[in-house]
Amino acid sequence: MNEPLGSKTAAMEGGGLYNRHSGLQHANLQTALPLLEEAARLIGQSSAGLAVIADYGASQGRNSMGPMGRAIDLMRQQDEDRPVQVFHADLPSNDFTSLFTLLADDPASYLSGRTAVYPTAIGRSYFEAILPPSSVDLGWSSNALHWMSESPVEVDDHAWAVFSASQAARDAVDDVLARDWLQFLTARNLELRPGGRLICQFMGRGESELGFEWMAGLFWQSIVELREEGHLTEAETQRMTAPSAGRSLAQVAAPLQSGEVPGLEIDHLSLFESPDPFWDEYQGTGDARRLGEQWSCMMRAANGPNFAAGLDVSRDRNALLDRLTDRLAARIAAAPQRSRSWNVLLSVTKSK
Length: 352
Ligand SMILES: C[S@@+](CC[C@H](N)C(=O)[O-])C[C@H]1O[C@@H](n2cnc3c(N)ncnc32)[C@H](O)[C@@H]1O
What we know:
By secondary structure, the protein is α/β, with parallel strands linked by helices. It has one domain (17-350): Rossmann fold (3-Layer(aba) Sandwich). Helices cover 43% and strands 16% of the residues. It is built from twelve helices and seven strands. The chain has helices at residues 17-20, 23-29, 33-46, 65-75, 96-105, 167-191, 213-228, 234-239, 249-257, 277-285, 288-308, 317-334, and strands at 51-56, 84-90, 117-123, 136-142, 192-203, 264-273, 342-350. The protein has a seven-stranded mixed β-sheet, with helices on both faces. α10 (277-285) packs antiparallel against α11 (288-308). Bound molecules: S-adenosylmethionine. Residues 7, 9, 11-12, 22, 25, 29, 57-59, 63-64, 89-91, 94, 125-127, 142-144, 147, 149, 302 line the site of S-adenosylmethionine.
C-alpha cells in the first residue's frame, strides 16, 4: 500500500491575513468564472438531489465566497430547494477559523440569503483522495495548484528554485510539479462522479518568461539584503526556497493526454496573462508607496509561512517577516512596474 501523501508546504499566513491581502488572486480567478458557471449550469440540468461542490485549496475563504455562491445558484436553476454541500479543503495548518467566521458573519458569505447549503471543511492535502469515490459534482480550485507538496531542492541563488541558475534544481522542480499534478488528477478522477466537472485556475508559465521575474527577483534581493546586514545566516537564506512554481500548458496537458488519468477529458485548457489590480490602482493614484504595500503584503500573506519555516527556531519570525515585507515594499515603491505573470485555466469532465 502507498504511504498516505501529506504536504510539507505551509498554508497561507493566518489570523485572516491572506483574506485581507489576496486582491491579486481575486482578480486572477475572475477569468475562470465563466467555466465554473457553465459547469454548474450543466450539472444543474443533468442531475438531481444533493449537489456536492469541492473547493480545493480554499484558504481562509474570502475568494471562495463569490464563486461558490454563483455555482450554488446555477446548480439550483431547475430546483431551487436542491440541497448543496460545499467542502472547503486545505492543509491541516490552514486558518479554518477565519473561513468559518467569514461564513457566519460576513455579508459576502454565500450562506447569506440562501438556505439548504452545508459548508464543511477538510484539513488534508488534496494530493490524495479526500472525498468518497464518485461523490463530487463540481470541483473548483483557484490560485492553489502551483504550490508543490514539498520544496524539491534548496538553492542559494534565488528564493524560488525555478529561477535558479542550476539546471539540476530546475529539473527537480519540474519533477515534483509533474508528480503532484498526476497525484492531484488521479485523486479527482476517483472523487468526481461521472459527468462531474473540475475547474482549475493556477499559476502558469509564459513562453519567453516564466512570469513573476520582477517580483520574485525583488523578494530575493530583499532576503540577500537582510543576510548582508546580519539578520539572516547563510544556512537560513539557503533554506528560504519557496515550494511554488508555474506549469506550462504542455506540463498541464501531459498526463491528461498520455492516458495516465483515463476518465478525465479536457473541455478547456488555456493560458492567460494575469491582471495586476495594484498596478491598475497605481495608474489612477500615482501612489507608489501604496503599490509597494499592496504587493509586499500579498507576497507576505502567501509566502511568509513557507519562508519563516526556514528560520532558526530562536528567531522572532514575525519581526523578520515584517522587516522583509518593508524592504520589499521599499524596492517596489522605488521603481514601480506592472507585474507580468501567467495563469492556467483548465476544465475537465469525468466521462460517463
Ligand atoms: C493562494 S491560496 C488560494 C486560496 C483561494 N482559493 C484563492 O483563490 O484565493 C492557496 C491555498 O492552497 C492551499 N494548498 C496548498 N497546497 C495544498 C494541498 N496539498 N492540499 C490542500 N491545500 C493546499 C494553501 O494552504 C492555500 O491556502
